[in-house]
Amino acid sequence: MMATTVPVLARWFEYMDSDDPDRVLDMISDDFAMSVQFSQGGGKSAEFMGDRSGLIGYLAQREKSTLVHHIDVGAMVGRHELALGRTTRAGAFEASFNASAQLNADGNVRRLLIARTPEVAFAH
What we know:
Layout: H1 7-16, E1 28-41, E2 44-50, H2 52-61, E3 67-77, E4 80-89, E5 92-103, E6 109-117
Parallel strand pairs: 1-6
Antiparallel strand pairs: 1-2, 3-4, 4-5, 5-6
């Protein structure tokens, strides 16, 4: 991961990949809003959206400690972090993802947009 380039997203995905992904709940602002566009490929997709309760619902349906997120390219512009990466399962490619986070003045995640698909792989 490129922790120095996108430190908040790097920590977010580190937590998401762990046995205790609920730690991301401590990273969000009071006015948090998110959308996760999750494609399994072949036209099968779902959107997880909402505020804190939406994130709790998203966390509840995820597999724990199964996928590993790798940030291949990251950039920080003001209070925005942007990342392009991939997830792997047992070391094998599973999907590409884009993640965008807007941070508040305290460094908490205020807005989060993530899109993932197994249909497009970027060279790394």
